[in-house]
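Milestone M4 deliverable, item 7.
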Amino acid sequence: MFNKTNNPFSKPSAGATTASLPQNTAPTGAMRPASPAQATARPSETANMGGTAPPPAPAVAESGSRLIVGPDVKLKSAEILDCDTLVVEGRVEATMDSRVIRIAEHGIYAGKVSIDIAEIHGHFEGELTARSQLLIHATGKVSGKVRYGKMLIEEGGQISGEIRSLAEEELPAARPRPEVLASVKTAMS
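Output delivered:
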């Protein structure tokens, strides 16, 4: 893997000569600042000084414990506990109460989920409660019993089944009762 004659870390063999590097230069391949400004810049600033934009931030911030179900993995008949973020790239059949679920474009989740934020690029089938936010991307398909705090569906995204806002469910007293409607209609006549 290493060329012994150019490797500064190998011991010289008998009769072999080694080249020494000048004191002021770094070995080939080492990072050197391109300008004096970069020499004093912090690493996060150095990445942007070359004119390249930083990578885009994910739509959902990830922190804490994370479980990633890879593309060829099938997780069946499970209950997922104490997982802050679940990333589904394969197939999952489970129940889950957590903080974030992200279903990748080719990912499939079937089951019951109670979550703060759901970001769907793939398929979800079952019962989904997104307490804070439900994001369905252009490639996303959601079907079943769906409850949400706020919802955003990109053009091309699909949703079907029994769909209700959590705000609508929390305010049953705000909905007029049938007997009240009947009395209002008779009073107006």
